[in-house]
Amino acid sequence: MTIAVTDFVIGARATGRAAGIPNLRIAAYPGAIAVHPIEDVKKNIEEVVFPQIVKLLTMPIAVAVTPVGIAMAQKSAIAFEGTFEAVNEFFLEKQWSDGLPIVPPTEEKIEQFLNYADRPIGASLGVLHPSLQQATVQSVAINAVMAGCRPEYMPVLISVVQAITEPRYRMEDVGSSAGWAPLIVVNGPVIQRLGLNASTGLLRVGNQANTSIGRFLRLYLRNMAGFMPGVGDMATFGRPNFPVLAENEKESPWEPLSVTRGFESGDSVVTINSVALMSFHVTVVADAPETIIRNIAIKFRQVMLSGDGAVITKGSEMSPQLVMSPVIARTLAGAGYSKKDVQRYIYEHSKVPAKELDAYLSLQGIPCASVCVDKGLLPPQFAESEDPQRLLPLFHAPEELQIIVAGTAERNRFFVTQNVARQGLATSKKINMDKLSEANAPS
Question: How far apart are CA 72 and CA 298, in angstroms?
Fold first, then answer.
């Protein structure tokens, strides 16, 4: 059995079904425990929760555990036949769409996508949470058709699914109440090959590649992983899915994000990162590079504290992002700043007094920084003294900061994203370009 607050009971049951426990026994705590006075918590546990625990643990197990995925495997390949309008009504009723019209995934269209796959139709790309289904090439193709992708996007989509099924990404947390959304960053020759927009308005819905690939991921998380609102997806508010962010490598003075993350120059790579908070797209007005980078550090500090200021305690690694337009990057590079220099500067100059960080930690019911060190939630450097004015960083190490150059070349803007610590850590996968190369080869 398990214990859940009442608002999460439906999600817990869905997780149980996915794990092969169709009648998971749940003791429900009434209401939102985090805002209850301690006396009410004690009373609810004694009078409401504990009696449920006793009852549930003394009940006979009526339903045997069943293997997951059998029902899915037995389904016919043809789900429905009808007009475009009828197909879309059927998909809406089944909750297989995102509320917008989908492209009907006919066998003919699916086959076109499979021609761009580098492995067999039933090949597994990883295990999906919380459904515990295998992510297959076929399921990628089906959802890609529905999202309005082109067949040649398939290599990117396969890498996207491989990235989200990596254990470090912690896909099981995609449906957390924080309501964060994944952001796909793309690097390499595939940007030009597929016509991804890396310049003006790249995060606007409009460009087919950026938009449909972003939509694909949301559909895939919903249809295959089981992140249905109110069931697997427990987002309090949620946020819209993002189009792809393609790095403007032609206008950047630095190595792309993919190289920073250990790939070779010329590799095509996807990196997926959680975004819980995206700042305003700030205008930089300054007459010197030193002023520009100082202003960026100030804004970075504001964002990291205005979101969940306690996020630093929720894992030993983070993936904050700094996305700047090419003109800002060129100005900093011209003054001698490398990417590592910028990472180090932001790390050092966004620090806050311990007293201020402790105040933000307390808002989340988390002990002060020094106590967090004792509990293993923060590294030793956060408790080197008890001076309330000692300066503490807002992320663990300079190299955690993901720096991306994108957007209009001559616009002096940047933005910052805060991720949810260990949830949705930046995870990268190389894109296999072989099938795209074959499509361009002379006949």
Answer: 51
